[in-house]
User: Fold these one by one.
Assistant:
Number 1:
Amino acid sequence: MRQAWRVADVRSAEKALMGTLPDGTLMQRAAAGLARRCALMLQESGGVYGATVVLLVGSGDNGGDALYAGARLAARGAAVQAVLLRPDHVHLAGLAALRRAGGRTVTDLPARADLVVDGIVGIGASGGLRPPAAGLVTALPGLRTRDGVRTPVVAVDVPSGVAVDTGDVPGDAVHADVTVTFGCLKPAHVVGPAAALAGHVELVDIGLGATLHAAAAVRVADASDIASWWPRPGAASDKYSRGVVGLATGSATYPGAAVLSVAGALAGPTGMVRYAGTADREVVRRHPSVVAAKRVADAGRVQAWVCGSGLGTDDDARTELRSVLATSLPVLLDADALTMLVDGQHASDLRRDAPLVITPHDREFARLAGEAPGADRASAACRLAAWLNAVVLLKGDRTIVATPSGEVWANPTGSPDLATAGSGDVLAGLLGSLLAAGLPPERAAVVAAYVHGLAGRRAGQGGPATSADVAAAVRPVLADLL
């Protein structure tokens, strides 16, 4: 598991650590890690000696990190050029070190460069980049190496121009190939559009763990977490003890939603799937192992319910929603079920002690919350989770899972291939299966998002993917994970 901390907590930890070390120690540790990563990248494309390295240097410590790293590269024979964006506020000791090592300052980007180091602004900045930095950043994609390929960019701590605590990108920002960050991850590395600009994130240990005592702002599960949390049957397991999931999804009008949500559930860990709805014939024809009924009331015993995908919003659909919410079981609400919550008719139905999970996309979120998620998606998801006393899975490229207590998870496996009709139905079924198998709601949401994201990637490898392709990809993805 990885974790990310907000700027204020990082600053507090840095201050405490610096009080125990000689002046400049943290910057030298950061510069050494940064220079090492830059050297490795240069060695892949011809070596450090003779390579042209451009430093984009802003004011403050971020620029100092870049200058000291540049000095280390210059000492190894690289031709290091520093563009000083604020010459009157440059880190003087770092600049002196660069010049002693043979580096020099320039006023603009050269015709060619083998590596660019983005040291414009660090974690203390706010707002988008302003001139002249914005102009330099927009010119970077046109820069080429000695071999004629696009010049790679290494960001110092975070890509300049991103909102560090929220992952928003309010204006022009650096698009890095690699981000070298120090001490700990920050939210911009893992949430929002900023995460896509960070490229590969490498964490350099500067000793911050000893003083970083605040709770993490965002958690990110990795493959080993997912594998360890996935429910597995034992020697004494049967179809009932593995869990039975019920799906009140789809309709005669939208049978595909039922078929897809059932496909997602069948790919999960439960031993049995019960379907309740008017698409029962189509479901059984496609999935003969499913036990089907027309209504929730007639479906039989289950350990969790999934409700909403393709259900409709008429009186019959509202009856099914109330039937599901009246149980003492974990419930996942998606799509049409979320639409039916907006008018407040089901407010009393939501006063329940059993776990509730909702899976809105941005437009559904806006209808429920009264406003769009905005720039700070994690905080917005937390507010809605607290208001509804539900785990919120806010779909997106970096899907957010938020709990009523304020815990936030970011999913690292999102794929544009999941932006296809019915993909959310597959996710809902898979998540419901994990709930029925006994996973806590927040963990079920994290696992489902992770596996669903990998399935989207796999389904899209052969070209445009459909939701049926995503459902079919879940099992081979699990085979690799488990």
Number 2:
Amino acid sequence: MSGLVSIITPSYNSAKYIAETIQSVQNQSYDNWEMIIIDDCSSDNSEEVIIEIQKTDSRIHFFKLNQNSGSGVARNIGIEKAAGDFMTFIDSDDIWFTDFIKNSVETIQNTKTSFVFSSYKRSNEVLEFVYSDFIVPQRVTYTDILKSNSISCLTAFLDIKTLGKKYMPKIRKRQDMGLWLQYLKEIPFAYGIKEPQAIYRIRENSLSRNKKNLLKFQWEFYREVENLSILSSTYYMLHWMYRGFMKYRN
């Protein structure tokens, strides 16, 4: 097993959690990785926390934006700087289990696929598992993701040596979904690992928990990013609303 893994982490006012996130990367059983952290003009002491850890680990690379630009812009800068054979993402408050990278690379090799993703556990802010695990399908296609984005940034894992680099669309929300769909237009499916490989921390002010606020963004995504007709957009929107409701039921 070989190949450099580029890990992309946008950070904004993450001082409370970022050390735990970095630790979960450093604890990986697969150690050939680089972690690219892009600070989106934080106003807390995130930068100091990250730089202190960086001093002890040359695999961590830190960059700071001059103005607050959003997580999509930060991730795209990380994609641009990524030098690995594989590319994956982890946000600044989430956690990987020890074998996440190892299992992702092995799954790509064993299944001869180029895009894998995993199930994950869902916790509250203090890592209590008060929500059920999110178990992913074994495979998803382009149309599956239009109905419900079961690929989280937390576990998406791409063989960019095979697929090449693509970038997130320049939109306020749903940038990750836009990236997955770009790849799924070119490959038959992404392969899902059923066993949870990570912890997604659900914070009280998380926008993903407020589906009403996302309705407008989701509709604009179908119409303006994917250029779907009104009829098709309505069809996928109804699926997305139902599955989104089911996803966040305890």
Number 3:
Amino acid sequence: MKSYFVYILKCSDQSYYTGFTNNLERRLAEHRFGKNKECYTFDKNPLELVWFETFNDVLDAIATEKRIKGWSKIKKEALINNDWDKLVLYSKNYTEFGRPSSSESVDKSSTGSD
């Protein structure tokens, strides 16, 4: 059975990049060696793999990648840290818990795709 991966990289500028691949080791090497100049991570080394999940269904993996790309930086950090209470809190409408502070603002860096 084929496996697919959704992953989050922490970039040198402290932003996060979310991606999808069917070969995690190869894709990480491509990011680290700057294979694609158009890729968001091209000039953001060193990169650190901070989270990944394995999927058997390609459509589930793609849907998860797209969902996470739309998340704020603080919500991604809650996922990375396995902080389920905060993940639930940050999943609520901003009017229910207030807007994040400027240090917790939405991470716009992860809008690219692989």
